[in-house]
Design a protein that fits this description.
two-stranded antiparallel ribbon; binds zinc ion; about 180 residues; 5 helices; 6 strands; alpha+beta; disordered N terminus; two-stranded antiparallel sheet; about 35% helix
Length: about 180
């Protein structure tokens, strides 16, 4: 398929961008896809945008590793003082990055980053459509992870064996506790 060779080259499609957090004012780097490098080839059956050489959906979220504030680039930094305070009160201090910094984002890391964006949405109380949009992004990431497992021919893999932490929790679990266990 040529897929393995393309995936190994993923680093050449991304770069580190330095940013300043809108909530805690600390600097951090976030990985972004180089404009024009990857070629768009269409969408799949769950409307995921597909590119040659890289799964760009892994790089859709900007997340501050210091306080946990996360969002898509379109909305990143666009917070009211009250929303900033809500993030400080509810996320900063409880959040800690528990994954290793690597040259590219694994699906597991990308999924955690996306969940932090979802948590940010829930805490700051923006539009439900924004949360729905992030849930769709989460589905794209799980789709990529499943494809990755398939291509690795993981012998233990079965569709029902894949863990969906958000979906697998009891419905009585509160929103914040439904998300937090995955980050600690
Ligand atoms: Zn921050």
């Amino acid at each position: 398929m040529g897929n393995d060779m393309e995936i190994k080259d993923e680093k050449s499609y991304i770069f580190d961008k330095t940013m300043k957090c809108n909530v805690c004012n600390k600097e951090f780097t976030t990985k972004q896809v180089r404009t024009g490098k990857a070629r768009y080839t269409g969408t799949n059956d769950i409307l995921k945008p597909l590119y040659t050489g890289i799964d760009s959906t892994k790089y859709d979220i900007i997340m501050c590793p210091h306080c946990g504030y996360a969002a898509v680039p379109r909305t990143y930094g666009k917070l009211t003082p009250k929303q900033r305070q809500l993030i400080r009160d509810n996320i900063e201090g409880k959040f800690k990055v528990t994954w290793k910094e690597e040259d590219s984002y694994s699906y597991d890391v990308a999924i955690r980053r996306c969940k932090m964006a979802l948590l940010t949405e829930m805490i700051t109380g923006t539009k439900i459509s924004e949360s729905a949009y992030l849930c769709l992004r989460l589905a794209w990431l799980y789709d990529g992870r499943i494809e990755e497992l398939r291509s690795q021919n993981a012998s233990e893999y079965t569709p029902v064996g894949v863990s969906f932490p958000l979906l697998g929790l009891p419905v009585t679990t509160s929103v914040s506790s439904a998300i937090w266990p995955s980050f600690t």
